[in-house]
């Protein structure tokens, strides 16, 4: 084993040890997410109180306004001009989801990461696009809560972001883009699951992060959150070839072999693009 291969192996060993000990160093939320969480836990929280909390973060406020005016969420023809109306239109869960979108961006893109910045940015863009697809798939084809599906899509690649950050802190372990890609492919699911559990989100969201890449995953019953994230990840690919997806179990479980069902999603493409952009993509 040459020196660079040994270094990559050592990096993997460290990740595996952290996972086994439950010692993945969970990134901290920005203050605005904590304040929104506390506000939503207050049974007396209303639109006025939530708007006051949100207004303290200009980036979040701007993103909420953009989302409220996106085609997938806009109710009626009127454009929203003020934050209070945007919060009322989106609802508490979508406000929380949008705050997480801003938080993930700040956590993983807010520091100086040198040559890895564009790779991180591209993974974040992909996550916002997958999130827009998960929202649409859940709302259109299943009974799964679309707000939960959006959050699962947004966080499905968080393990990749974490691995890149750790590699940035330990450049001696990673000698090439190929090594980085292999590490992410092999480890991002379990790392992502640990982070999502550490952040207090549902088991279903954590499982979606861990298992969405398994195209042969077989489960009983109706389509679940992991199926939605799997299909959204396929559809979000820049050069998606849908003819190749018919053998994917999640594709069949969402009944997308039916051309009428698939057409419903295609009809929403421009709205999905707009929602991804509003989420920060």
Output the keywords:
mainly alpha; 15 helices; 281 residues; Hypothetical protein af1432; single chain; globular; 67% helix
Question: Could you explain how this protein is built, in words?
Answer:
This protein is 67% helix and 0% strand. The radius of gyration is 19 Å and the shape is globular. 42% of the residues are buried. The protein has helices at residues 3-21, 31-41, 47-54, 58-68, 83-90, 92-109, 117-141, 146-155, 158-169, 177-198, 203-211, 225-235, 249-253, 259-266, 269-279. With 281 residues, it is mostly helical. The mean pLDDT is 84. The chain contains 15 helices and no strands. It has one domain (3-279): Hypothetical protein af1432 (Orthogonal Bundle).
Topology:
Elements: H1 3-21, H2 31-41, H3 47-54, H4 58-68, H5 83-90, H6 92-109, H7 117-141, H8 146-155, H9 158-169, H10 177-198, H11 203-211, H12 225-235, H13 249-253, H14 259-266, H15 269-279
């Amino acid at each position: 084993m040459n020196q660079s291969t040994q270094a990559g192996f050592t990096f993997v060993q460290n990740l595996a040890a952290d996972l086994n000990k439950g010692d993945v160093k969970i990134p901290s939320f920005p203050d605005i997410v904590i304040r929104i969480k506390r506000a939503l836990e207050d049974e007396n929280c209303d639109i006025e109180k939530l708007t006051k909390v949100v207004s303290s973060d200009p980036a979040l406020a701007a993103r909420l306004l953009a989302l409220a005016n996106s085609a997938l969420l806009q109710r009626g023809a009127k454009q929203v001009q003020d934050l209070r109306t945007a919060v009322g239109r989106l609802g508490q869960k979508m406000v929380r989801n949008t705050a997480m979108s801003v938080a993930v961006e700040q956590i993983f893109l807010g520091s100086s990461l040198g040559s890895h910045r564009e790779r991180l940015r591209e993974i974040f863009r992909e996550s916002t696009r997958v999130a827009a697809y998960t929202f649409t798939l859940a709302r259109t084809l299943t009974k799964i809560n679309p707000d939960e599906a959006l959050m699962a899509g947004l966080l499905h690649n968080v393990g990749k972001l974490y691995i890149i950050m750790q590699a940035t802190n330990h450049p001696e372990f990673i000698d090439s883009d190929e090594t980085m890609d292999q590490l992410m492919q092999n480890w991002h699911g379990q790392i992502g699951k640990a982070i999502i559990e550490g952040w207090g989100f549902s088991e279903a969201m954590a499982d979606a992060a861990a298992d969405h890449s398994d195209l042969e995953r077989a489960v009983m019953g109706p389509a679940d959150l992991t199926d939605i994230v799997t299909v959204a990840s396929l559809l979000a690919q820049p050069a998606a070839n849908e003819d190749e997806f018919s053998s994917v179990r999640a594709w069949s479980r969402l009944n997308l072999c039916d051309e009428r069902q698939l057409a419903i999603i295609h009809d929403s493409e421009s709205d999905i693009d707009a929602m991804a952009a509003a989420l920060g993509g």
